[in-house]
Amino acid sequence: MPEVHIRHPFNPKSDIYLKSLAPAAGLSRVSLTLGRIPPGQESFVYHSHERDEEFLYILSGRGRAEIGEEAFEVGPGDFMGFPAPGGPPHHLTNPFEEDLVYLMGGERSGFDVGHFPRLGKRILFGPGGIQAYDDKDAQQLSFADFLAKE
């Protein structure tokens, strides 16, 4: 299980090392990943999910978790769960002097939408890859928009 170095394209302070654990056990419908954030760095971007639920469990080190409009110091044994849809946006940072190590897991539905409310962006994850767009460019439609007008 090699460790993969990730930097989120929307956050220059994103600097995280991930090791996917689920495939080694033959799991394909659930995601379980060992994450490591070096001192002074951040995980991804303040975000929420439309479809896939997610959880974090801190193994070692300390960090700062933004959940909704609140921030909490987190450490070993702390557990956070983010239901979808409707769960609060969240973000994990490491302002401390040692690595923050945690388990990250959840569903692997094959399709999800990531919301980045502070950036006004969304990402679509699907079989065709990852697509990003600005919320301001989205056109809101309803079912009625598709009904034939005779």
How do you describe this structure in short?
The protein is mostly beta strands and 150 residues long. The strands form three sheets. A six-stranded antiparallel β-sheet has the order 1-2-3-11-6-9, with no helix packed on it. The protein has a four-stranded antiparallel β-sheet with strand order 4-10-7-8, with no helix packed on it. A four-stranded antiparallel β-sheet has the order 5-12-13-14, with no helix packed on it.
Word description of this protein:
- The structure is a single chain.
- The chain has no helices and 14 strands.
- A hairpin with a 2-residue loop joins strand 7 and strand 8 (70-74).
- 0% of the residues lie in helices and 47% in strands.
- The chain is globular.
- The chain has strands at 4-6, 16-20, 30-37, 41-42, 48-49, 54-60, 63-67, 70-74, 79-82, 90-94, 100-107, 112-116, 121-126, 129-134.
- It has one domain: Jelly Rolls, CATH 2.60.120.
- The protein has 150 residues and is mainly beta.
- The strands form 3 sheets. A 6-stranded antiparallel beta sheet has the order 1-2-3-11-6-9, with no helix packed on it. Strands 4-10-7-8 form a 4-stranded antiparallel beta sheet, with no helix packed on it. A 4-stranded antiparallel beta sheet has the order 5-12-13-14, with no helix packed on it.
